[in-house]
Design goal:
alpha+beta; 2 domains; Ribosomal Protein S5, domain 2; transferase
Amino acid sequence: MTHTSYEQAFGRAPQATAQAPGRVNLLGEHTDYQGGFVLPTAIPQQATVALGRNGTGEHVLYSANLDQTIRVPVGEVGSGFAPYLTGCFALSGVQEGLNAFIGSDVPSGGLSSSAALEVATLRALRDLADLDLDDVALALLGVQVEHDFVGVKCGVMDQMASSLADTRTMLLIDTRSLDRRAVPFPAGAEVLVIDSGVPRRLAESGYNERRAQVEEAARLLDVPQLRDVTDPSVVERLPPVLRERARHVVTENARVLAALEPDVDATRFGQLMNASHASLQGDYAVSHERVDELVALLQAHPDVYGARMTGAGFGGAVVVLVRQGQATAAAQAVLAEYSEQGSQVVP
């Protein structure tokens, strides 16, 4: 039987409960591990984690979404969804058996469901064990969980956005200094997110390979990170593949900065989003033919300013900048042409 609460799963009340939102990124994809600028925003959907001590030598982890329980001895990592939690337990210094209830309405695929899970877990741990962690330190621990326990060499954007962003504004993050500020959405526009229905698994995809390629490109260009490239033409000297990967990162960082100029309206912002998708599809090669089909349909809609894949790629979600008040109608019109098992609108 699927349990809908910690009490149902474990027969007692939790000692700490926390939530964290998923995120969608409007601009700045695959720049955060090169010190670049990014423009994510939080979405209303949240991950919820409830924790309680169980007085044993094992963690008992229950996922309501999967209706699955995993038992992991304290000090071990486990498999399936377990590493997202056991990594948080290990890095926070908690060395006692815990019961954990996990529930989430964040769709997986480009909306940082994993970051939301990590941030929610760390927030609950912060309350449970009275940990001295501010929201930035908590986000950085989530990044370390991805690197050391999940096996995805991600940047800092997802966890920073899940920990610090809200749904009312975009959060401009300088991923090198971690400075950040709220940025309003373009006037007269709203954000629509559509899950393409194409599943992805980053640990088995080319994500880590892309990161290694851009790091090699930075080394060959003799810069600490591709953010430090001042003349975009220098990337053309790189060998094939590295040239394309570096070109995406350099031009994507420039697109974020262009979006911050004072005269940028919804039309111009949408053009930058469209260019971002073309770069992700071509130079960075992380899109998917079905995602490209969905993006093309959206870009052709008269009330859409711009559309692009969001997240690491290889499937997942599409983010759309649409005329205020027209999100539902645009989504319905496009989805009437695009059919994919599991595709859905994230309001």
